[in-house]
Amino acid sequence: MDKPGRLPPGQHEVKALPVLHIGPLPRFDRATWDLEVYGEVENPLRLNYDQVRGLPKTIDESDFHCVTSWSRLGNVWEGVRFRDLAALARSKPEAQYATIECDAGYTTSLPLADLMQDDVLLAWGLDGKDLAPEHGYPLRLVVPKKYAYKSAKWVRKIKFTVEEELGYWEKRGYSDSADPWKEERYA
Q1: What is the per-residue pLDDT for 4?
Q2: What is the pTM of this model?
Q3: Alpha-carbon separation of residue 126 from 15, 53, 100, 157, 158 (angstroms)
Q4: Is the pLDDT of residue 130 over 90?
Q5: DSSP 3-state of 169
Q6: Considering the domain 31-182 in this protein, what is its CATH number?
Q7: Is the model's pLDDT at 83 over the cut of 80?
Q8: H or E stretch including 119?
Q9: What is the enclosing helix (H) or strand (E) of 51?
């Protein structure tokens, strides 16, 4: 079952994405839902769901690795590249990080250098279907080169910052760099 070369150290392959999250599943109301992009940007944005879905769509296949030791290989995500959204907001030169703010009070933060990679998406689809609510619908961040706690579910705000702000799990002792290939699970 495990695929040599695609599984980071300490990981095993699963066929279905397990469901892990904090707090209750948020309710999605298409009429009131929005995504805000703010902070160190020249063009702050507030997009409704139809506007988000109208952004240039990307389909990208990547593997997904959880800090709890499972990996799901060959996920086909559909969404908008983070860097395309950042280009619309026109991040200021001093912005070095982005804090991702989600329903249920979850946050994570990553360097813009990591977020601007080709395979980093704000995804609304997985394997040809809309994401299931328990997997982040209507919008989740997907950062394949990091452990999954960096791939925040139910994204509502993206704040561009000069300094990094530690997120929910990072404040609780998890690694901020979260590189599965280096087994950076804990700080």
Answers
A1: 58
A2: 0.94
A3: 14, 14, 20, 21, 21
A4: yes
A5: coil
A6: 3.90.420.10
A7: yes
A8: none
A9: helix 49-53
